[in-house]
Design brief:
The protein is of the alpha+beta class. The protein contains eleven helices and ten strands. Helices cover 42% and strands 10% of the residues. The N terminus is likely disordered.
Amino acid sequence: MDASHAHHHPVFCTVVPPHLLDKIAQSEDTRRADAAQRTLEQDSLLRTRRRVTTVRGIAPALGTPVSDEPRRTIYDTQHRTRLPGKKVRGEGEAASKDATVNRAYAGLGATYELFLKGFGRHSIDDSGLALDASVHYGEDYNNAFWDGQQMVFGDGDGDLFLDFTVSVDVIGHELTHGVTQYTANLEYHGQSGALNESMSDVFGSLIKQHSLDQTAEDADWLIGAGLLGPNVSGVALRSMKAPGTAYDDDELGKDPQPATMDDYVDTARDNGGVHINSGIPNHAFYLVATELGGKAWERAGRIWYDTLTGGELAADADFKDFARLSVAAAVARYGDGGAEHQALQKAWSTVGLG
């Protein structure tokens, strides 16, 4: 696919994948089924509305200093679906009485901080893009998404899903879709789409680890821990450490993520399984990070960031392309005899992409 076409590829990224909501929509519990159905219908509407990927931002004029401070604004849609809603908290303003507002504000800040301190990146577009988020979206809306311009959080149904601001990695996950959009602009389909999802999980997890000052060993490597309701048999939406083990529940079904290419899922659903096969590059990152030890954003994260932003990763890149470029990025930054190079070769080989 040529690069000019890539900009017209519709991208609408939600943290809860459609296959999961499809399963809940078949529930015998009508309240659960209705909430899932409403969420699916809303997502479908938004997907249709988002015909065009936001084109890369215009770089600031040379010599224009970009602030090291984020510019956050939180809005409340008051359970409607018109965006952005009513402004409830701006940058530097006092905390709200609404915990959801404060969690969204803190999550945007944690994301900004990891990209700035870890990689010298100024916001999503590297030009100080303002970070906007809307909370309390819709009724029992079981999702969170990046719409190309801002973050949006549902409150969940309070049953299977809790408030979508509770997991800082979910906030980081969605905002990273913005970083990908402004860099490699990976097409949201098949393996390039699974890489797009995986980038969001990788940096979402790093944002959580950075905010908690965790080492790779201390981290839980879960995406969306704390998001599932108390009656769900599961710990999170996805596990990077052990893809396929995040949940196994009567209503949600079983986590379908593979950890290696042996179990790659060929499907037409979910844009060619973008939320499913992302388990493979996710697991490779986990293996590299834990092999290298220490703070995962310092070396493993740096290599992933270099690969994503280096200009070599095509919009329609597949897993093998990413694996090859990540090894090249590791050699460029750390040399070819080091632990980094070895950790990458070992990890990609383990997941079947050696």
